[in-house]
Amino acid sequence: MQIEQQLADIQNVVDDVLKLALSKGATQAEASMSKVQGIAVSSRMQEVENVEFTNDGGLGISVYVGKRKGSASTADLSKAALTLAVEKAVDIARYTSEDPCTGLADADLIATEFPDLDLYHPEELDTEKAIKTAIEAETAAMNYDSRITNSDGASYN
Asked: What SUPFAM superfamilies is this protein classified in (predicted)?
């Protein structure tokens, strides 16, 4: 799936969760969601030690019921789990002490334009390349000086 579609899907989930929070009694709500895909390879003494694939995600929500705040998070992104997280956050808020300083910032204080920080550099998840890179890095370190006879390994993330 292309990154643009993944971002649109994430935005839709967050929008739905925020609407649900308001329908469950929150007066304000904020949510954040993450999705991570990756590979991690470690080598030791120029042999593959470990290969791990990651495909994780999660959502955190904070709700405000008046001047009371409740938060919940979930790694299960099913509709049922998201609904439960929202309900629990609202329940927590109802039992929390009031805080006159809690709540979202005023709309005129919230940033609406964001510079492109050039932080996203997509790369295909290539196991062979990851293994080769980790072993090459460790080999280069071992070959740097003949006195180096042991290694704690190298990794590619």
From this structure: Putative modulator of DNA gyrase, PmbA/TldD
CATH code, domain carrying 71? 3.30.2290.10
Residue pLDDT, tens place only, 31-89: 999 988 899 999 999 899 999 999 899 999 999 999 999 999 999 999 999 999 999 99
pTM listed for this prediction: 0.76
Q: What is the DSSP code (8-state) at residue 100? A: T
* E-state strands within 28-141: 28-44, 47-65, 68-74
Total domains in the chain come to 1
What are the backbone angles phi and psi of residue 17, rounded to the nearest 5°?
Answer: -65, -40
Q: Are 24 and 87 in contact (CB under 8 A)?
A: yes
